[in-house]
Design goal:
transmembrane helix, 6% strand, two-stranded antiparallel ribbon, amino-acid transport, Sidoreflexin, two-stranded antiparallel sheet, mainly alpha, 322 residues, membrane, transport
């Protein structure tokens, strides 16, 4: 782009129209790009400076619109939208594909013994706990005690669910047995995500008007946000955990894997990774990041406060988390 960069580009919002699935998909393909985890601290801080300076009306000479959007997406990939904190590396959405393909591939390869199920489900739920904490909604800090309690209850409940499901399928066909990790992950997400974000359910998450003016905190908004995240996470895991079992069940009957059984895990990880490259951004895009709900669905006290101050307001907005 030639000429001076205009000062009124709205980089608080995504580059693409978030009212459409295609626009949200484009946004999340950029946010979840695994190459973002290779960026250095210097590159991240430079992106943050460009974004913060532009918001203050300071435009470096020669900065193009594409460079500005690139800086915005680097910034969004590493810094929390509500707190502005730099997020834990493995908790960032750009780490989802490499981390999940490795963990999921191993869960689906080593599922036959109880110790293996216990170990990989614990690894998976520990990783999920980090992701759920990192991508929480709101800016209220968690205390060490709250975080520890949430982690222990979430991982214990999820691992117990996985072991219970594994015990129920001891006498079914190997193909059915391969789907146990997916069933366990789906059930565990329903436990892990609400428990790691339980503070939001207790005290609520910030809700704003369309222009970002904070109106208060709502637990009802938190319930909607967490429900949407649980649904998208389960669907995100589905292709990578539902398609490879059929392929692996066929491959393990072939001479190649009988001759090289050690290739089973890398092939499984690769298949899962291929599915996740597409499933991660597409499932994140199922619901808008800036979610909304009717004022009439809020708590009575907050409704009254909003109607007194903004009588014409019909919808409120909030960051649902990821």
């Amino acid at each position: 782009m030639s000429g001076e960069l205009p000062p009124n580009i709205n980089i608080k919002e995504p580059r693409w129209d978030q009212s459409t699935f295609v626009g949200r998909a484009n946004h999340f393909f950029t946010v979840t790009d695994p190459r973002n985890i290779l960026l250095t601290n210097e590159q991240l801080e430079n992106a943050r400076k460009v974004v913060h300076d532009y918001r203050q009306g300071i435009i470096p000479p020669g900065l193009t619109e594409n460079e500005l959007w690139r800086a915005k997406y680097i910034y969004d990939s590493a810094f929390h939208p509500d707190t502005g904190e730099k997020m834990i590396l493995i908790g960032r959405m750009s780490a989802q594909v490499p981390m999940n393909m490795t963990i999921t591939g191993c869960m689906m390869t080593f599922y036959r013994t109880t110790p293996a199920v216990l170990f990989w489900q614990w690894i998976n739920q520990s990783f999920n706990a980090v992701v759920n904490y990192t991508n929480r909604s709101g800016d209220a800090p968690l205390t060490v005690n709250e975080l520890g309690t949430a982690y222990i209850s979430a991982t214990t409940g999820a691992v117990a669910t996985a072991l219970g499901l594994n015990a129920l399928t001891k006498h079914v066909s190997p193909l059915i047995g391969r789907f146990v990790p997916f069933a366990a992950v789906a059930a565990a997400n329903c436990i892990n995500i609400p428990l790691m974000r339980q503070r939001e359910l207790k005290i609520g998450i910030p809700v704003t008007d369309e222009n970002g003016n904070r109106l208060g905190e709502s637990a009802n908004a938190a319930k909607q946000a967490i429900t949407q995240v649980v649904v998208s996470r389960i669907l995100m895991a589905a292709p990578g955990m539902a398609i490879p079992p059929f392929i692996m069940n066929t491959l393990e009957k072939k001479a190649f894997l009988k001759r090289f059984p050690w290739m089973s895990a890398p092939i499984q990880v690769g298949l899962v990774g291929f599915c996740l490259v597409f499933a991660t951004p597409l499932c994140c895009a199922l619901f808008p990041q800036k979610s909304s709900m009717s004022v009439t669905s809020l708590e009575a006290e907050l409704q009254a406060k909003i109607q007194e101050t903004y009588p014409e307001l019909r919808r409120v907005y909030f960051n649902k988390g990821l």
